[in-house]
Design goal:
With 244 residues, the chain is of the alpha+beta class. The chain is built from five helices and five strands. Strands 1-2-3-4-5 form a five-stranded antiparallel β-sheet. Strand 3 and strand 4 form a beta hairpin.
Length: 244
């Protein structure tokens, strides 16, 4: 019998169905419905405040193995010496400034601790010596240049003594002897510019009246001279001289 007859024949309970020919279409596979994820409702808290949990950071344990001193290569004695040299060179400038500051402080402290009366006496004595010394040094006659140079050497100290003798012999004497020049210096004002325990810097204002052969009236030059006076064996001598 055909399969159509089997479909029209009523089925008796408990009777097995005959299988006919398979149809051209395979039965659709049974699909299992996807299980929906379970939704968990969040628990609603009351008005109480929930403190946040503080998590302490983990501190790594120190390694027992020492780190290498030079990650690139081994430091040799030359490299170590170079580093010490750079370190000393870098520290030289601050050290020098510190030494200078200490010297200046000691100088200021020494001056301030001195008796003000001694400072005033030194200033007056140095100023008076500067005025008389400059009048003698800057006055000369073409007739007595050599004798004056020897006498004036006693007013000077340090390297300025040699400098003065060289200037007189090389620059002043030839012109003065040729033109028969006579110069007379007179100071009219002086004041202290600076002072240390052993030196006093004095500014002197003076006039130089110069006469030469063939001149009826002397010419007058006004000069300002700065003299550094140093106390040597109780005397104030000229250590440095500059005019402007």
């Amino acid at each position: 019998m055909s399969s159509s007859d089997d479909r029209r024949r009523p089925r008796v309970a408990g009777q097995r169905r005959r299988h006919g020919r398979p149809s051209g279409k395979p039965p659709a596979p049974a699909t299992t419905p996807a299980q929906e994820p379970e939704v968990v409702e969040p628990e609603v808290l009351g008005p109480q405040t929930v403190e946040p949990e503080v998590v302490e950071p983990e501190v790594p344990e120190a390694s027992a193995e020492p780190e290498p001193a030079d990650p690139v290569g081994t430091v040799g004695p030359d490299d170590d010496a170079g580093r010490r040299g750079r370190l000393l060179a870098g520290a030289a400038t601050p050290l020098t400034l510190l030494v200078l500051a200490l010297v200046a402080f000691a100088l200021v402290l020494t001056v301030s601790l001195r008796d003000p009366g001694d400072r005033e006496r030194d200033a007056r004595a140095a100023t008076a010596a500067a005025r008389t010394s400059l009048e003698q040094l800057l006055s000369y006659s073409w007739k007595t240049l050599d004798a004056q140079a020897q006498r004036n050497a006693g007013l000077l100290t340090g390297s300025f003594r040699t400098e003065y003798a060289t200037t007189m012999a090389g620059a002043i004497a030839p012109v003065a002897e040729k033109q028969k020049v006579t110069v007379q210096a007179r100071s009219y004002e002086a004041g202290v510019m600076g002072q240390t325990p052993d030196t006093v810097t004095v500014q002197v204002f003076l006039n130089q009246a110069k006469t030469a052969e063939g001149e009826e009236q002397p010419s007058v030059d006004q000069n300002r001279v700065i003299a550094t006076m140093r106390k040597v064996d109780g005397r104030w001598l000229v250590e440095r001289l500059s005019a402007y």
